[in-house]
Structure formats: C-alpha cells, structure tokens
Amino acid sequence: MASTADRLSERRNSVIPDIEALPESTLDERGRQRFCSALRRFAIQDMPEMLHKDFDHRVAPARQSEGVPLDDALAIEDAMEGEASYRFYSTLRYNAQEMCFQSVQEPIERALPEMIDLARAAQERNPAGGSLRLDPALPVPDYVSQLDVHLTPGCFHKEWVADDVAQGAVVALGARVFSASMSHRSWGGVAKVISRWLKHERHEFAPTRMLDIGTSSGKNLMPYVQAFPGVEAHGVDVGAPLLRYGHAVAEHEGIPLHLSQQNAEALDFPDGHFDLIVSSFFFHEITVDATRKVLAECRRLLRPGGIMVHQELPATCLVDAWEDFFWNWDTEHNNEPNYTDFRAQDPAVLLEEAGFEPERNFAHLLPDLGAYPDRAEAFGWNEPGRPRHGKGAWYVFGSSLPS
Ligand SMILES: C[S@@+](CC[C@H](N)C(=O)[O-])C[C@H]1O[C@@H](n2cnc3c(N)ncnc32)[C@H](O)[C@@H]1O
Known about the structure:
binds S-adenosylmethionine, 8 strands, alpha/beta, 15 helices, 8-stranded mixed β-sheet, 46% helix, Rossmann fold
C-alpha cells in the first residue's frame, strides 16, 4: 500500500500548477538574489563571531579597565554601539535583510496577474480538499499594520489589487533568498523537528485536528500533515495575501489545509477544538499584551490530552549576556519592536498565567537533525553540547493538558 507521503506526492502537480514557479527571475535577478543570500549569511553568521572576538579582546578589556560592568545586554550594547566593527556589522545586516525581500519583488510583479488567476482557480476547485476563509473586515493589529515587520516591504497584509497574493510571494520567496545559504534553515524545518520530537516523546500521540498560529503561507504547517496522516490542519493569520498564496501552494502540493484570516488574540473556533497547537517565529512579533491573549486562547482551544508547542527566540533568562545582546539587535534595527520585551518574559510565567499547569510546562532546545544529518548520533534529544537556537537547534516552549 502506498504511504501517505507517496500519495501526497502523487497528487502534486494536479490541476493547480505551482504558484511558486510563476515568478521567473532573469539572469541578473538571480545573480542579485544569490549575492543577497551570501551577504546575509556573512552578516548573520560570520560577522557575529568576529564581533564577539572584537568585544572580548579589545572593547571589553578597555571598558573594564575603566570600571564599567558588562554583565547584561544593555551594557554590552552601550559599549559596542559606537564601535566601527558593530556599526559595519549593523549596516551590512540591515541592508542584506532588506535586499533579500527587494530582490524578489520585480519577478513577482511581472507574474502577478497570472499568480492571482491561479490562486482564484485554487479557491474555486480545491482539488486537495482544503479551504480558505477570508474576512475583509478584520482589523489588522497595529503591531502588523504600522510598520514593515522585519523590513519586508509591504509587510504581511498589504493588498495592492483585488485578490492580491503579492505579499504572500514576497514573504515566501524573499525568505528563501534570506535563508538560501544556510543549511540549518531548511524549508518547513521547524515543523519537521517538532513533529519528530512529538513522535519521540509521545509515541501514541495522533492528533486529529491541529492549529498553526501566524501560519503565513503554511510552510510550517504542511509537514505536520505528512507526520500525522489524516490530521485536519488549520492555520490562522491576519494577512489575506499570505493565506491566498499558501492555499494555492497547498492545493498544488495536494495537502488539504484549512486557512482562515483571524486575529489569534480572539479566534472563532469552539472550546477544546484542537489536540495540537503550534506556532513558529510568531510571538516575538506581537506585543506582550497580545502574547498573553493568544496563550489564553490556546488554553481555551486545547482539548484534554492535547499538546501545545511554540518555537520562538530563547528567553533572556536562558542565555548569556552576549547572546542576549545579539538577539535583541532586531528590536532597534529590524522593525521588530516587541522582540526585547517578548524575550524578557519567562515562558514558565506566561504559561502559568494562561492557565497551564506548571509541572506540565516546558522550555528547551530541539536539535535540527535535518541540518546536521551526519551528526544525528551526537545530538540526542537531551545531550549537552547541542547547538544553540538558530545554529542547528530550535528553542521551543509549551505545555500539555491531562487527558
Ligand atoms: C514571522 S511570521 C511567521 C510565519 C510562519 N509561522 C513561519 O514559521 O514562517 C509571523 C506571522 O504572524 C502573523 N500574525 C501577526 N500577528 C498576528 C495575529 N494577531 N493573529 C494572527 N496572525 C498574526 C503575521 O501576519 C505573519 O504571517
């Protein structure tokens, strides 16, 4: 009998062509995209190591000789912000980030009418059996609408024409340029890591209905359908263009996703509707007040015996001062003003406030074996020496409910 993965791939290339293949880059554009990928990798992976050395060997000794304590991220930022090394790093990182998204805009613009037609056809035909529910009256929260989050031009929600999918494409294809040179950022990798861990921890766990919060175009939702055959997979997001685009991708892939445009602070699903709730790269982009509301919604929506796993940036209380300084760069420089405030929260406290039982809550790193297949043996789930978050491991926090 064919496996679920085989059946899903047989259904691929069905009546809905691949929307992701429509924007065709010219040779010049491809060159630019490759340059942006390489620049970003250099800025975010190689430069921080050099910067750290500069801090340890030059900046810190000079400050300490003046009696300045350097024991938290703010003190390190204060010491580094005027230094040429830090300014050069920040400049490269800022521009590389912005250019990754800009590098896909022109091919997307040329293909836009065709992409919109394809997304409309996906909605009419739904060959994979998914669904798309949009709410044009939904107020987009200020923390999304008032700025281009992480320097993505047009952000997650802007619509320039009727039935627009452009921002879905800019976010999805820009993110591929953004992470193309980094082996530890495989497509849908977070979902693969979490589902593998869930199967390891709870062999018997077989969710029937799941929810991905802030799903964007569903890249971190789709792998769960393959990991848990038959699961009814729901994703919510405030950005309509992302959801239209994601729906077209999923219908092409033959994966039934149920996508709806909703604010995760107040969802319209009934109590206890899901036995698995996940999110990835979501909470650091919303306010702490909104985080509390979303976690309270998760508690309401999780069914007895259910599990909730959120992948996020490691909390301040879990990292050293240098790493804290490194992560908080985005707050001031990457249009992510809630980053530091979110990271300052202790996940254990947030979970308890939302009504989860302290002894069932967790916060830890999950190694991404997909990024280091040759070291699979070395990275047991709980071994010391695991890679850091963003360096081949993902930080997750969450909880579960008793059956
Ligand atoms: C950085 S993206 C993460 C996307 C995706 N989860 C991933 O792993 O790539 C954050 C997403 O959360 C969405 N979002 C922000 N605030 C939201 C809210 N209150 N309710 C639902 N979605 C929200 C944004 O539109 C965006 O698509």
